[in-house]
Amino acid sequence: MTTNSFMGQSDLINDGVKWIPRELYFSNYVQAWKVLEIKDSFFETAFYVLKVSVLITFTSAITGYGFARFNFPFKKTLFVLMLATFILPSQITMTSTMVIMRRIGIISTQKAMIYPAFFGQGINSAIYILIFYQFFRTIPKVLSESAEIDGASEFRIFRSIALPLAIPSIVVVFLFSFVWYWNETYLTGLMAGSNLTLPLKILTFKSSYEALFPPGTSGAALNEAVVLAANMLVILPLLIIYFFGQKQFTESIDRTGITGE
Q1: How far is CA 190 from CA 48, 119, 157, 178, 213, in A?
Q2: What's the predicted TM-score (pTM) here?
């Protein structure tokens, strides 16, 4: 995709040109940059995804801690229902969810994605809760019992003991949620609007391109290379995040036992 994004139309259809373009067309990225309005769209997307990811990480940690450390009526039933939210395809609950969002007046706004994340029903929340649940179960109870003897409240134990020990789980959940919310187009488009994130703008890239570069004007020919350049710009932030955080990410996966080991 990187190689093709720098090609012109003649190179794309030439079987003799595969990896190295005969000429680098940086104009593909210039056109994609203008159509996607990267300067504004990037910060809007990043702020939205960061906000939702932080919320879902915090609420998943609280929920996972509650399931791991406390006994309460219908605990097993509620745990199974929580897992069922991941097992059931989103298409099954989509109609009822949209009706609820419309009735409370938050459909087609960011709140339609933020509120579910805050209440533990965001995208793939069940996986995040399960990760925290499995980790908090490994913490020796003697730590919380010692804190209780010293007069610490349950929230103080969670904040001062459990969360610092759960840094590996926090890293994994935050990165997973960031990537999933960044790439999600189906639910975000239906619930929050079709132009909220950069991946959503890719879906309307052709129509936006033709509006900015009408047929007959300079650079009006939309080819595959321009579309690939736009995709490169969209996934570049995720590549940068993983490049700088891959060591912490892989170590956190190993420490949380996410592979089932």
Answers
A1: 16, 19, 40, 19, 28
A2: 0.85
